[in-house]
Amino acid sequence: MSDYVNVAEIFGEDVFNDSVMQQRLPKKTYKELKKTIEEGKELSLEVADVIAHEMKEWAIEKGATHYTHWFQPLTGVTAEKHDSFITAPMPNGKVLMSFSGKELIKGEPDASSFPSGGLRATFEARGYTAWDCTSPAFVRHDAAGAILCIPTAFCSYKGEALDQKTPLLRSMEAINQQALRLLRLFGNTTSKKVTPSVGPEQEYFLVDAEKFLQRKDLIYTGRTLFGAMPPKGQELDDHYFGTIRQRIAGFMKDVNEQLWKLGVSAKTQHNEVAPAQHELAPIYAEANIAVDHNQLIMQTLKRVACQHGMKCLLHEKPFAGVNGSGKHNNWSLTSDDGINLLEPGKTPHENMQFLLVLSCILKAVDEHADLLRESAADPGNDHRLGANEAPPAIISIFLGEQLEDVVEQLISTGTATTSKKGGKLETGVKTLPDLAKDATDRNRTSPFAFTGNKFEFRMVGSRDSIAGPNVVLNTIVAEAFKEACDKLEAAEDFDLALHDIIKTNCAEHQRIIFNGNGYSDEWVAEAERRGLPNIKSMVEAIPALVTDKAVNMFEEFGVFTRAELESRVEVKYEAYAKAINIEAKAMIDIARKQIIPAVIKYATSLAASITAIKAAGLDEVEVQTELLKETNALLKETKDALAALEKVEDEAVSMEEGEAQARFYHFSVTPAMEALRAPVDKLEMIVDKEMWPMPSYGDLLFEV
Ligand code: ADP
Ligand code: MG
User: Fold this and answer.
1) What are the C-alpha distances in Å from 339 to residues 175, 179, 333, 704?
2) Which of 303, 78, 302 is nearest to 204 (CA)?
3) What is the pLDDT of residue 704?
4) Which of 59, 136, 273, 616 could form a disulfide with 323, with the two C-beta atoms 3.0–4.6 Å apart?
5) Using the 8-state DSSP alphabet, how is residue 510 labeled?
C-alpha cells in the first residue's frame, strides 16, 4: 500500500453529505430535505422513506451491514444500538436488506439504563431517538465491521430531553432568532440564519499500552491515583526523541486519515506543555456538528491509539503535578451569508454592531458566570479548575489592549473615538483564522478570551462533551441580545438607545474584564473584591443550574424546562458520586493488594540485609536501618490512611444518592484519598524500582 494520501479524495468519503445527497436523491426529495435542514421544516414520512432507501443503498456500498441511531445520553459519551438491515427471510431462503423512513427518523432503544434523573421511571422507560438531519449520517468502520451511524437526539416519551443534543439544538434556535433580530436592526435584510461556530481544541495524552495495562488506576479510572513525580530536568536524548516522534507521527497520520474520511477537518499539532501530551484541533464548524465531531475525534483517538500499541488518556488530570488536559471551545456567530458577528474590523470603535454584540457578551458572561463555570464541571476538571492547575475557577474575560481601551472610552465618555493600532486584530486573515494569532495572544491565563474574531472558553474539560458549554453560551448571549433588541425596537431614537445600551452594558459589567495574570493569587483576591464567584468544585457548581435566574432564562428560550434542569442536577450529583466511588475503591484495592505487599517485601529484604551484614561481623548498618525505619513509618502511615479511607468510603456508599452524598464524596472522601496517596508516593521514591508494582510516571511519560 502506498503511503500517499489524497486528502481531497478521501475527505468525507464515509459521509452521507450534501454532495452525496444531491447526487443520489431525486431532486424533489433533496429539496425537501434541504428545507428541513435549513429552515427546520418537518419531514414527511414519504420523503423520509426515499432518503432512508438511498442512505441504505449508499451505506451497503460502503460495506455497512447495520445501522445505528447514534446519540449522546447524559453520560458525556455516545451510545448506540445496532440493528441490521436484514428483514425476515424470503421463501427462497434469501434475505432482503431494508431500511424505512420510519426507522431513519425515529428509534426506540431500550434505554432504561441511561441516566434520566427521574424524568423517566423504569416502568415508563421509553426513550426515543430522533434523526437530527442537520448533522450528516456516516459509515464508521471498526472491528464490528461497517455501521451506518445516524446522529440522533434522545428524548423521553413526553419529549423531555435526555441527551446533550436536544438542548443544544434548542439553544441554537434561540441564538439564531435573537441574532437575526439584531442584524435586522442594523439594516441587514439578507441573512437568513445565524449559527454559532465552534472549534474545539482537544488535548490528550498517549501512553504505552503495555505500561497502561500494568496500572489498575488507569484502567479503572483513566487517571493515576498514585505516582511520584519523575526526577526533574530529565532530558530526552536525540535518538530517543526521534523514536517517540516516529511512533506519534504514525499515530497522527492514521487519526487524520480516519477523521478526514468521516468529514472531520482535523489538523493536528504537537503540544509541548507536558511530555506525552498532544492536541488536535479541527477547523470550526456549526456548533451541532462540532459537538458530534468532537465525539468522533475522542473515539478515533482512542481506537487508533490501541491500533498503535498505545492508550489515549482523555482524562483532565491523568498525572498529578503534570499539566492536565482541557478543551478550548472557540465560539463565534456566523450568518449563512458569511458575516461573523464577532469580527471587530480594523476600527472597532466605529463598528457599532460589533460593540453591541461585545457589550452583550460581557453582560451575559458576567450575569451567568456561575452557569458557564458549571458547564465546565466534571469530576476530572476538579483537579484543574481552582485546584492544582490553571485556568482558575473564576470566570473573567480577556479583551486585549485595543478592545479594553475602546470599552474604557465608552464607559468614561459614552463614545469611543479611536482604536489603538497594531496587535493581533490587524493580523486576522479571514480564510486562515488560526495562523497569526498565537504570536500576539499574550494572555494564556484567561478562561474566556477574545482572540481576534471569536471567544475562546478555555475551562472545558478534555473528556467532557462540549455540548453543555455551548448550550450555556448560546442561551446567555441570546438573552442579552433579546434585552437589547427589545429596547432598540421600541426606541424612538435608535442611535441614542444604542449608545445607551452599549455604555450601560460595559459600565455595569466591566468587573468581568481582566487582562492580567489569571493564575496569580492577587487575582483571586481582586476577583473577590469585585464580587466575582470563585466556585471551586463540581459539587459546588451544580446548583447554578436551578437558580431562579437560570430556570427563568432557560424556560424563556425553550432550552430547558425546570424539570429537565432538575433532572440534570440529579444526574450530575450521581455521576460525581459514582466517579469518586470508583476511584476510592480502586485506590483501596491497589493499596491493599499491590502497594502494601510490595513495601513489606522491600522492608523484609532490607531487614535481611541488615542481619546478613551483622552476621558478616560488620556494624555499618546505619543507612539500612534508617531506611528501614523510614519505610516502616510510611507503611504505618499508609495503613492508617487506608483504614480512614475505607471508613469514609463505607459511609459514603451507605448514603442515599443525591446532593448530600456527592458533597460527602467531595469534602470527605477525596481528602482521605489524598491522605493515602501522600505516604505511598513517598514510598515509591524509597522502594526498589524492581519491587514497585507498577510503572512510574517517568516510565509512562517518557517511554511512549
Ligand atoms: P489557538 O490560538 O488557541 O492556538 P487556533 O488558531 O489553533 O487557536 O484555533 C483554534 C480553533 O479555533 C480551531 O478549531 C479553529 O478552527 C477555531 N476557530 C477559528 N476561527 C473561529 C471562529 N471564527 N469561530 C469559531 N472557531 C474558530
Ligand atoms: Mg486555544
Assistant:
1) 15, 11, 8, 44
2) 302
3) 73
4) 273
5) G
The DSSP output letter for 512 is G
The answer to whether 625 touches 610, Cβ cutoff 8 Å, is yes
| DSSP of 43-64 | PPHHHHHHHHHHHHHHHHHTTE
Low-confidence ranges of the chain (pLDDT < 50): 1-2, 122-123, 233-240, 423-441
Q: 86: which DSSP letter? A: B
Locus of grid cell 515509591: 684
Which residue pairs, CB below 8 angstroms and at least 24 apart, start in 644-648? Answer: 644/672, 644/675, 644/676, 645/584, 645/587, 645/588, 645/669, 645/672, 645/673, 645/675, 645/676, 646/588, 648/672
Which tens digits make up the pLDDT trace of 21-33? 999 999 999 999 9
Rounded CA-CA distance 198/200 in Å is: 6
Which residues make Cβ contacts (< 8 Å) with residue 299, sequence separation at least 6?
78
Task: Specify the length of the chain in residues.
Answer: 704
Instruction: Using a cut of 0.85, tell me whether the model's pTM lies above it.
Output: yes
pLDDT score recorded for residue 268: 64
382-413 burial, b if ≥16 CB within 10 A, otherwise e? Answer: bbbbbeebbbbbbbbbbbbebbbbbbebbbee
Q: Which atom of ligand 1 is nearest to the CA of 330?
A: 26
Q: What is residue 138's predicted lDDT score, i.e. its pLDDT?
A: 96
Cα–Cα distances (Å) from 78 to 37, 138, 153, 298, 406, in that order, read: 22, 15, 11, 10, 44
Rounded Cα distance, 451 and 403, in Å:
11
At CA 174, angle to CA 360 and CA 562, rounded to 5? Answer: 100
Q: What pLDDT sits at residue 431?
A: 43
506: cell is: 460595559
Distance 201 CA to ligand 2 centre (A): 6
Adjacent-strand bridge partners of 394: 534
CA dihedral in degrees (589, 590, 592, 597; nearest 10)?
A: 150
Ligand 1: centre distance to CA 265 (Å): 12
Q: How far apart are CA 353 and CA 182, in angstroms?
A: 8
pLDDT at res. 74: 87
Pocket of ligand 1 (CB under 6 A): 197-199, 201, 281-284, 328, 330-332, 340, 433-434, 437-438, 441, 451, 453-454, 456
pLDDT value of position 417 = 84
Distance 292 CA to ligand 2 centre (A): 19
Strand ranges inside 48-135, DSSP E: 64-70, 82-84, 106-107, 127-131
